[in-house]
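Internal ticket - ligand job 146, iron/sulfur cluster:
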Amino acid sequence: MCDEAVSALDVSIQAQIINLLKDLQDELKLTYLFISHDLNIVHFISDEILVMYLGQIVERGTMESVYRNRAHPYTQALFSATPAFTAEEKRNKQRILLEGDVPSPVDPPAGCRFCGRCPYATAKCAEEPQWYEVEENHIVKCHLFA
Ligand code: SF4
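stdout (structure tokens):
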């Protein structure tokens, strides 16, 4: 398990560590559980992504599918906060600013845990959402997909 393993390092050291992890993975056939807030590193190292909000998994899918089709409103907000790489990304990028405070994980809200900050919340979101399929190997916990 690598929990924010490179977050405190400068970019060149980060790249060396990530490349070393990938080499070891290939050589020893390892599986990593890689926890990070840096979505660019997640993109580089992951085959499958789990997005968590307030201690709960809200989206799960292959790296390719989640990057192409960000389903959960929290996932969309997370991705909107990453720097754009290309000129086209810069032109098209729209930052999603979430309002409200993050609730306490000790006493999470009833229903969908994201409901107090979600721009799409409705009365239905007072009930806990089930898992819904976005596409093959990609699921999301959100009433918008019911
Ligand atoms: S279930 Fe409702 S509040 Fe939760 S993410 Fe979906 S739309 Fe937003």
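Auto-summary: The longest helix spans residues 11-28. Strands lie at 2-3, 34-35, 48-53, 56-62, 132-135, 138-140.
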